[in-house]
Amino acid sequence: MTIQEAANAFRKKTVSSVELTRESLKRCAQLDSTFRAFVTITAELAEAQARQADQDLARGVDLGPLQGIPVAVKDVFETQGIRTTCGSKLFANHIPENDAAVVERLKAAGAVIVGKTNMHELAYGVTSSNPHFGFVRNPWDRDRIPGGSSGGSGSAVAAGMVFMAMGSDTGGSIRIPAAFCGTVGLKPTFGRVSRYGVMPLDFSLDHMGPLTRSVRDAALTLDVLAGFDPRDETSSRRPVEFCQIPELVSIRGIRIGVPENFFFDNVTPAVSKAVRKAAATAEQLGANVVSLRLPDIASLNTMGRVILLCEAAATMERYLARREDFGPDVLALLDQGRLIPATDYINAQRMRRIFRREFQSVWKQVDCLFTPTTPTSAPKIGQTTLEAGGVDEDVRIASTRLVRGINVLGLPALSMPCGFDAQGLPIGLQIIGRGFQEAEILKVAAAVEDALGLTGRQPSLGTALRE
Amino acid sequence: MARDWALIARGLELQIPEEELRKIHGPLQTLTTQFAALIKDLPHDTEPATILPGPEEERS
User: Fold this and answer.
1) What is the pLDDT of residues A5-33, one digit of tens each?
2) What is the nearest CA distance from A277 to chain B, expressed in angstroms?
3) List of residues 6+ apart from A405 with CB closer than 8 A
4) Strands (E), A271-425
5) Are A411 and A169 in contact (CB under 8 A)?
6) Which of A189, A350, A360 sits opposite B48 (nearest CB)?
7) In-domain check, residue A70
């Protein structure tokens, strides 16, 4: 069931928020010992919020489609009076005094927050194999990673524990788990969703967005989240274009670019085939699909890694004397960032300006881009390298290769399921758009989603559900 | 150009154990070498990208 379907049933009074929430909490109780998707489950608060939603609707107070819907937020979003760990031992007992802006907006929209999702430590990695709060597992194959860093959010949505879970994305951390877990994941434009109250990793690359079961659910969630917030100095004053998508959506005449360079190099044949099929589907729907060459994405990634390493090290510098409180992979990245000279960081920011200008020429040719989200489906837990297109590559580098550069540019991008490989694992299609054109990429994504008809396909949870 | 990361760490008074420095030497060397090639022709009058208020599209 999607948020749209649940919201309709809620308004027809065929289901109450308390019933939806109890079902969500029951599923969390059944599944979370296997999938470790949550750091904290807030059952009592969720029940209270659900009762309030039922009472409000009975009084005629309709707060919109998220009212009464069980959702979760990554444990990077501060929640008043509820522990917020950022997946780190450093913050294991951190109880914030205020809600993050995203949490405020979800609450104002009447959403029921059932808990805080597990994540890669400090949102700095792609496996979500968290040394402090447990290894998150992928509902499609529990021996595989869910991706990260918003792995708990991807796992919780894919396993049907919640209808939506919030993630953060610094170098792909919403889109990678969306691709590996077979959900939709939306990284909005930099500045579109407030970062107030989010524990920062990297101040010029962090973006906040939802993981959902359908494109329309992502759109209606963005409508709740988007907008100016004076407490976040990077927040945009640009007016919000609402993203409501009609039942029948036309993409006739929309120009879709399929990159000739980089994005299809060293990806598995299954990934390439599924993404190209999605592009062909869009063409059948009337879109104008063209091949084009993009600026040098490998260099963009190199620059992005320099910026990420330096900014993350600066953010965490004050804690680095407590080396024993970090997992080894995160500590290694932070140490690298401390060693890179300031001149490299500044030059990376200078290169960033050049790439942003270069990318503007892309939008004269097309309205959006179709690419794979990741070069492979989900790797196994503990796997350190993966092979795609005959090349062995570090899992972290490979998994972020097709998504990282988009954070450097600050552009909106979405991952949605576009097929499955021979092992039955989901494959993600990435749709990248112009700055602040979320409505356009969501419209295109919804049309493709409708045509592909994959929304109802869910993982068989087998013994995890019975245990 | 190979950088002596252990020397840099000592110069910055960073308390990074030798064994951990050895592990990060390779990735750091690869990244900074790639990056050096990337910026060698960077026009001297290019200013850093502004972080606030967001992508340049906002002002265009």
Assistant:
1) 999 999 999 999 999 999 999 999 999 99
2) 31
3) A297, A300, A301, A304, A355
4) 288-292, 368-372, 385-388, 391-394, 413-420
5) no
6) A350
7) yes
Residues of A in contact with B42 (CB under 8 A): 347, 350-351, 354
Q: Is A360 left (phi over 0), alpha (psi -120 to 50) or beta?
A: alpha
Domain with residue A291: its CATH number is: 3.90.1300.10
> In this structure, is residue A373 part of a structural domain?
yes
A90-140, pLDDT tens digit by residue? 999 999 999 999 999 999 999 999 999 999 999 999 999 999 999 999 999
- Sorting pLDDT into bands at 50, 70 and 90, what band is A391? confident
Q: How many alpha carbons fall within 13 Å on the CB side of residue A179?
A: 36
Domain annotation covers residue A362: yes
The amino acid at residue A279 is A
Label the pairing between strands A112-117 and A70-74. parallel
- The structural domains of chain B, with segments of one domain joined by +, span 1-38
Contact list in A for residue B45 (CB cut-off 8 A) is none
Q: Does B1 touch chain A (CB under 8 A)?
A: no
A253 exposure class (CB count in 10 Å sphere: 0-12, 13-18, 19+): exposed
Q: How many domains does chain A have?
A: 1
Q: Is A344 on the interface with B (CB under 8 A)?
A: yes
Determine the Cα–Cα distance for residues A341 and A252; give it in Å rounded to an integer.
Answer: 49
Q: Do B24 and A332 touch (CB under 8 A)?
A: yes
- For A208-240, the three-class secondary structure string (H helix, E strand, C coil) is EEEEECCHHHHHHHHHHHECCCCCCCCCCCCCC
Q: Is B46 an 8 Å CB contact of chain A?
A: yes
Residue A200 CA to residue B48 CA, distance in Å, equals: 21
Question: Quick count: other Cβ atoms within 10 Å of Cβ A93?
Answer: 8
Question: Catalytic amino acids of A?
Answer: 74, 149, 173
Chain A segment 99-118 residues within 8 A of B by beta carbon are none
* ipTM of the complex as predicted: 0.90
Chain B CB contacts of A240 under 8 Å are none
| Smallest CA–CA distance from B60 into chain A, residue | A360
Instruction: Identify the domain containing residue A408 by its residue range.
Output: 3-299+346-466
CA–CA separation, A128 and A389 (whole Å): 25
